[in-house]
Design brief:
Blueprint (H helix, E strand, L loop, with lengths): L14 E2 H8 L3 H9 L6 E2 L5 E3 L1 H15 L4 H32 L1
Antiparallel strand pairs: 1-3, 2-3
Helix pairs in contact: 1-2, 3-4
Length: 105
C-alpha cells in the first residue's frame, strides 16, 4: 500500500538530481557542487543516488537567486540562513505578543 502522506511531507526526498535540475532550471553539476560544498546534503537512495526534498529545492532556488545577483556561494548560503533566522524570530515575537495579549484579557 502507498503512503500518500509522503506527498505532503516537505522533507520527503522525492526528486532525483535530474528532476530537481529540471524543476530549478539548473545543471545537474550545479546540484552536485552544492552537495560537495556541504551546502545542500540530499539524502541517498538505496543505490546511492541523490534524492532532494521540496524543502531543499526551495532552499536551492533561494540560493540561486542570491548567486544570480553576484554573491559567492558562501555569502548566498549565509544570506539565506540569516533570512530564515529573521523569519523565525519574527514568528516567535508574533507568538509571544499574541500570548501576552491573551494573558492580558
Amino acid at each position: 500500500m502507498t503512503d500518500l502522506g509522503k506527498l505532503d511531507d516537505e522533507d520527503y526526498p522525492a526528486f532525483t538530481t535530474g528532476q530537481a535540475a529540471e524543476l530549478l532550471d539548473v545543471q545537474q553539476a550545479f546540484l552536485r557542487s552544492l552537495d560537495s560544498a556541504d551546502v545542500v546534503r540530499p539524502q541517498r537512495s538505496g543505490g546511492g543516488h541523490r534524492r532532494y526534498s521540496r524543502r531543499q529545492l526551495a532552499f536551492i532556488a533561494r540560493l540561486r537567486e542570491q548567486l544570480d545577483t553576484g554573491h559567492t556561494l558562501a555569502a548566498a548560503d549565509r544570506i539565506v540562513g540569516l533570512e530564515d533566522e529573521l523569519a523565525d524570530a519574527k514568528q516567535e515575537i508574533a507568538d509571544l505578543r499574541r500570548r501576552l495579549d491573551d494573558a492580558g484579557r
